[in-house]
Amino acid sequence: MRTKDENKIRAIKAAVIALAQQDGFTNLTTAKVAKRAGVSPATIYLNYKDKTDMLSRLYEEVKDDLHQGLAEAIAAAGAEIEAQLRAALHFSVAQTLAHPREAHFVSALWTNQELLDDAARAYGQGTAAPLVQLFQRLNASPDFTDAPAVIVASVASLPTIVLQTATDSVNQATIEQAIDVAVKALKR
Known about the structure:
Helices cover 73% and strands 0% of the residues. It is elongated. The longest helix has 18 residues, at 6-23. With 188 residues, the protein is an all-alpha fold. The chain has 12 helices and no strands. The N and C termini lie far apart (59 Å).
């Protein structure tokens, strides 16, 4: 039985992320991934069932990487809900700045969920537990809107969307303004 070659798996991951950003998901093929990763197409199929499985498993892995430290950042903000929300937004911005390709990959797949399998969609919602808990506290607070999690998450994504779409003109003041707008939008 063959063992997994971690270097090849990392190369596949890097190739998928780069190609997805460069060409989009529609033009992403396992042949292109194999060529970019410097592996045979058979290597991809040793690790993933098909393109959907590959995207789904990599989505889960990259999402885990991006959320590493989120719970601690929220907890470090103290007990005030608004401070926790701001900490979560700052954390997301910092992760997007530190890992722009990975953040774009996760964001693009989350908005194209038909490319993910059911397990990845469920995983995406489950791994966001610190955010889900924060959103629940926001909804329970008399100071914040009682909106469905999808609306809260969409509004909360504003600072990273600003960062990803207006990279030439974004500075710290713009990010702070985007965070202020998101927080105000979620308040009653």
